[in-house]
Every structure is written in structure tokens, then in C-alpha cells.
Amino acid sequence: MALPISCPRFPGDLAAREGFYVPSPNRFASFAWLDTVLGFVQLRSNGPDLELKPLQSPAVTLQPAGAHLFKAAERVTASHALLTSVDGKRTISTGMQTYHQVSLLMLLPLWTSLIASVQGCVHILRPVRCHGHARGTARRRRAGGMGIAALAAVGQDFRPGRG
């Protein structure tokens, strides 16, 4: 008969740790913006357990494995650690990647910029339909191109690390 093992509880409020986390540092500097926009994870508490939900993968249930340590349900040893960095940022570490907590208000402009960029690319790349004069079509094409340039300039202002 196996005896239940009790682990020391997390010495803080798990509900305060809920929210969005982005990779920090990013693995490749050239992909920092994409990592931030698409590589985030969401952390939710579920009683004593935590649920870590990446955008591009299934959710992982984390069970307490010691004070700041948590383990994935299918693992025997601790796989995640909840830490606070020297500068006071809440972080999650998987051993291979560290994520720091960010506000949803920081992510919303990035997501908006991504959506606007995709819409701009679709607008530029879609075939031009000839309705009427070629001059009118060219004028519409130029005006759309200027809008895309403006969206691209605005999107650059929301890159991570920009003041």
C-alpha cells in the first residue's frame, strides 16, 4: 500500500500568478516579435494544480512537487518552477525556456498589429480586379499601399523592447 506523499505548498497566492507569460529571453533575436506574439502561454490555477496553456499546443496540468516546483501530470520529477526574478517579474521556467508575466494590455496591441499586417498582406497580394478604368484601379492600388505602409510603421512601434 502506497502512502500519500505531501509536498510543501507554494508559499504565495497561485491566483496572483495567473495570466499571460511570454518567452524571455527569446531563443532567436530575429524572431523576438513572433515569439512574443505567438509563443505566449497562459497560466490558470485550478485548486492546488496549475494549467499551462500554450497557444500552439495542448494544455499541460501542473501538480505541486515542492515549494516552487510543479510537475506535469505524466512526469515523475518536477518540470516547471515558479520564480520571481531579481527585478520583481514573475517567471515560469521549464528548464529549457523561461517565460515572464506580462499584462494583457501589452499583448493586445501586438495581436492587433499582427491581424492588421496579415490583412495588409492579403490586400496587397490579392489579384486586382478590373472594374472600369485602369486609372481608377491604379489609384485604388496606390491608396491601399499607403495604408499598408502606415500600418507597418505603426506595427513597428509595438515591437518588444521599444520604449
Question: Mind sketching the topology for me?
Answer:
Elements: E1 19-23, H1 32-38, E2 41-46, E3 49-54, E4 60-66, E5 69-72, E6 80-84, E7 90-93, E8 98-102, H2 104-125, H3 134-157
Helix pairs in contact: 2-3
Summarize the structure.
The protein is of the alpha+beta class. It contains three helices and eight strands, in the order βαβββββββαα.
Overview of this protein structure:
The protein is of the alpha+beta class and 163 residues long. The protein folds into 2 domains: 14-102, no CATH class; 105-157. Helix content is 33%, strand content 26%. It contains 3 helices and 8 strands. The chain has helices spanning 32-38, 104-125, 134-157; strands at residues 19-23, 41-46, 49-54, 60-66, 69-72, 80-84, 90-93, 98-102. Strands 1-2-3-4-5-6-7-8 form an 8-stranded antiparallel β-barrel. The longest helix is centred in the last third of the chain and has 24 residues, at 134-157.
